[in-house]
């Protein structure tokens, strides 16, 4: 590995051995961070920071670290590092060992739609270079029947689908299809192409696989002719991870002609740097395929993928009657906190809300009141015990109308925790909730009648009904409830 190589991509590896040559110089190297941390630097530049390597070279182990905020610059080994407000990943160095981590797309199973630029702006020559880049990217992805699937759409005046995700799952057939793609010309209507791809390519009827991450990669030569924001919003709402690769960005003289200079930031899944990629020219684009393919296959970084953990809306309906008691009420809250911790609660992810009931109902916090997990869990823990009677039926009606918005089946869940007999009818309210797409889990404790629990719970009753004699047994239900929520979600989405 030469000392001038930069931008080492380490999205998958827990540990990777690399060699640094003797006489490694620090020219053209940018070092960020302090001590053993480095980001956006050459391997040798990072090694100087830790003092592990001298000019004689050697082997070091790199380990991926999570991103950091507010990292201060410092001077180390004669190198002044720069400060960073934020980055999404970095790596540390330690003494080399014997094991090696193979760090590519071995387990990648994403469905990837590529939107290529076929506008007049790119021209025939650069269009051919773009096809070569896509072919090399497909090879790096290791496309196969059980691996990544790739579809291709051309962006021009109107989008044109060249082939679907399942048309070519053999590498040779796929490469041939890419090279057979013909140049269209016209406007670079990337927004239209993104919307077309998001609305059609990823449908199960056209071959998109259920439960597989969905990635939409747009290649843009210069800048788009149309607006991309509407298409990007639709893609995000549909669980599609949009990447933008900008090639040959506008020069300072051309900026006045660009309709929206922030098009890339608006189009990507999340404006955190991970989903945007810049290539100076099509003539050297091929050397970027490995780094880009690794990003596309970094499943833990694909923040817009819809899973049960980041897509469901869970309402907690909590019995606050006198028979529960203060101590047991805290055990109920602990149980609900355990469930909440299992989900990725955020403004674009999962949401939770809570209602406490006796004869009356009290909205503790709404489904969309907290946009991060920490605040949501704090809100749960702050719930104060009411004490009173038990009217579960009225509480179900109240929760359905005050917690949930209309959503696709398998998205809205209501977990009812109660310790006794309801003084009102529960069958009617529960049936109404089911018909409105709300899946009910009934969790009974102590004197809660099993028949009542099964009347409330959704089908199949056995996987949506839980009972324990003692409040301390609630913790045993955390994982089964979470598992069954995800089973319901997967079945319906």
TrEMBL record:
Keywords in UniProt for this one? Disulfide bond, Glycoprotein, Repeat, Secreted, Signal
Q: Which InterPro entries match?
A: ECM_Assembly_Org, LCCL, LCCL_sf, VWF_A, vWFA_dom_sf
**Species the sequence originates in:** Gouania willdenowi
Its localization reads: Secreted
Q: Where is the VWFA domain?
A: 111-302, 313-481
Q: Name one cellular component (GO) term.
A: extracellular region
Q: Name one Pfam family in it.
A: LCCL
Give start-end of the signal peptide: 1-22
Which protein is depicted?
Cochlin
Keyword Disulfide bond carried by entry: yes
Q: So what does this one do?
A: Plays a role in the control of cell shape and motility in the trabecular meshwork.
Domain LCCL as annotated: residue spans: 20-91
